[in-house]
Amino acid sequence: xxxxxxxxxxxxxxxxxxxxxxxxxxxxxxxxxxxxxxxxxxxxxxxxxxxxxxxxxxxxxxxxxxxxxxxxxxxxxxxxxxxxxxxxxxxxxxxxxxxxxxxxxxxxxxx
Length: 111
Known about the structure:
Blueprint lengths: L15 E3 L2 E3 L6 E2 L13 E2 L5 E2 L5 E3 L3 E2 L6 E2 L4 E2 L3 E2 L6 E5 L2 E5 L4 E3 L1
Antiparallel strand pairs: 1-2, 2-3, 4-5, 6-9, 6-13, 7-8, 10-11, 11-12
C-alpha cells in the first residue's frame, strides 16, 4: 500500500487522498503531488474571468458597488489604473475617483 506524504505546511502525518489531491485535516491544506513545487510567496490573484492580475494592471468594475460607510456608489465600467495586490480579505488596493478603494478580485476584470 502506498504511504501518504506528510503535509508540506504543518508536517502532519494524518493526510488523505481525495481524487488527485492530498488533503491535510489539521490545517486544511490541499495540494497536487504531481504539480511543480514552488516555495516563493508570490500572491496569485485572478479576476472574475480567471485572468491573472499583477501589480500595475488596469481593472474595470463588473458591477455597481456601494462603499461601506459612505453614500458613494462605484458604477459598473469604472476603471482603476495601476492597482496594487495585497494579502488579506480584499486583494486589490487602488484609487477610483480620487479615493483609495479596497476591492475583491471577483468584482473586477482585467482591462
